[in-house]
Design goal:
The chain has twelve helices and twelve strands. It is of the alpha/beta class and 327 residues long. Helix 8 links the parallel strand 8 (203-206) and strand 9 (229-231).
């Protein structure tokens, strides 16, 4: 097999999913340094290109919109027109092999999802969900490279750590809220944590995106004009600004959301709140990246046992003093 000049990768999901996919792209780039990589993704996640030089181009596919079948037809057309040498897809749907076959791309790689995957893919890789998602995605590229990249890497530039600083991002995506996937504390609890961290002499910065406006406003209302507390909401222009703030901080505290993956990507000590989701799949097993969790009997339940979170939310009842100790 000749070294590919153009590689197409498909990974649909939120920005966090795209960051988790970066190690696979990194290993491909190390194996084929001259190849150009195009990442097909949902429009909401296209900003991942701002975080990495690995992605040369993005192809937006609104797979969850009203006209998803038309979008898939457009994708097939663009893929054929692009004359790619290889294609990798993280989708586990049984029709993914058909989609990749229709692109006309010679070398096709995806997960084993039935008889069609074995017939239509160059190599069907076994899907092993019970592991860190970056490892799971990375297995897609093992048929073509022995190079292993463990964690996402985000190049935020040379930034000096600010001593005693804690960056807190309390929010989650609006989509999680709309779908009743409760994964974070109420603003009042976050405010209580901010107070406890300030009492330890730390400098606390509060940050959030447009989806977090109400949450941030409530926290600021409770904290007031406290010394060593600064609200940075509205100061970031793009996702790279958030990455730079995360790299500057000594500690990042956040929910199970995109900022957690950014914290890992820039190598900052990250404490991530995990309620109903499975930390083993979403954060590295590393002393630098810590899951804040309550080991109640029913967690993790979201996705594995249910599609929405329960009403009790015992999993989010966590002793804040224990969190402060972790800091």
């Amino acid at each position: 097999m000749k070294s590919p000049k153009k590689i197409l990768a498909l990974n649909f999901g939120g920005i966090g999913d795209e960051i988790l996919f970066l190690p696979a792209l990194s290993s491909l780039k190390k194996e084929y340094p001259e190849a150009k990589i195009t990442l097909a993704l949902e429009p909401r996640s296209k900003s991942v290109k701002d975080l990495t030089p690995l992605v040369d181009d993005v192809m937006c596919i609104d797979i969850k919109g009203k006209h998803k079948y038309l979008e898939l037809l457009k994708f097939i057309f663009k893929a054929r027109l692009g004359k790619y040498d290889m294609v990798f897809s993280s989708g586990a749907n049984q029709l993914i092999p058909v989609l990749l076959f229709l692109t006309g791309i010679t070398y096709r790689y995806g997960y084993e999802s039935g008889i069609l995957s074995k017939i239509l893919l160059t190599k069907a890789v076994k899907l092993k969900k019970n592991q860190y998602a970056s490892f799971m995605y990375h297995e897609l590229v093992t048929p073509v490279t022995d190079i292993k990249t463990d964690y996402p890497e985000i190049d935020a530039g040379e930034i000096e750590k600010e001593s005693n600083s804690v960056l807190i991002h309390p929010g989650v995506s609006k989509m999680s809220v709309v779908k009743n996937m409760v994964k974070t504390w109420k603003p009042e609890i976050w405010a209580e944590l901010v107070k406890k961290v300030l009492e330890k002499g730390k400098k606390v910065y509060l940050i959030g995106g447009p989806d977090d406006k109400e949450c941030i406003e409530k926290i600021v209302e409770i904290i007031g004009d406290a010394p060593n507390f600064e609200n940075l909401y509205g100061t970031t222009k793009n996702i790279m600004d958030l990455a730079r703030l995360a790299k500057r901080a000594e500690v990042l505290i956040c929910s199970d959301s995109a900022p957690m993956h950014i914290g890992v990507g820039v190598g900052t000590k990250t404490l991530a709140l995990f309620g109903p989701t499975d930390e083993k799949k979403l954060i590295p097993n590393n002393e630098k990246y810590i899951a804040i969790k309550n080991n109640c009997d029913c967690r993790p339940c979201l996705w594995d046992k249910r599609q929405t979170t329960c009403d009790e939310l015992h999993c989010l009842k966590i002793d804040l003093d224990e969190v402060v100790k972790l800091i």
